[in-house]
Input
Amino acid sequence: MANATIRPEEAAHFGKLAAEWWNPKGSSAMLHKLNPVRLGFVREAIDAHWRCDSRALKPLAGKRALDVGCGAGLLCEPLARLGGTVTGVDAAEENVNAAREHAQGSGLAIEYRWGDVGQLGLTDYDLVTSMEVIEHVADKAGFVAALATAMKPDGLMILSTPNRTPQSRLLLVEGAERLGAIPRGTHHWQDFVTPEELQDLLSGAGLTMSAPKGIAWSPTKGLHLSDNLALNYIVTATRA
Output
């Protein structure tokens, strides 16, 4: 699909991984390790934004959630279990098909759509998430604007992405891809977005970005939330 934000070659790359997306030891193993860390941040952000009881099982009950670049639904399914009415969007049709099949097998009513978020007419979502996606899109400003359009005025956005640093080039591209921890061709270091650049993109869409939280790795902790932004970071955004 050739349209505003999708790079066809990126969609094709991730579409080839669809069959293994839910295999924790397959080509998406790193995402399975990353997902619990992101979910911890997401839950805290939800509780803070809507002043939820942290012990509540379904803090998204009565709320609509949109995950853009959803892959096969690794984040959509937990959001649904938190009570949200969830829509997942992905640029690869293979991923959408895999996501639908897995959700059905899990007994979860999640709507999945294939295409460019800016061309699907999506609006009125309380929560909009997009994890490790902005580094893959062709028009980053257009992509962020589409996310902002999909979000309610009083909604919450959560984004995560690799940082463009020497450390991320060494570990995420040169290291992880060459060692097989991440499929070759997944990352293009020059397309990584720094926190300052993401803040400017969000500001251009009328949004205010929170202080970024790092997602770091260590031999003792594995992947974890940190003040170290060198590899990867996650942020919230709300209307300015």
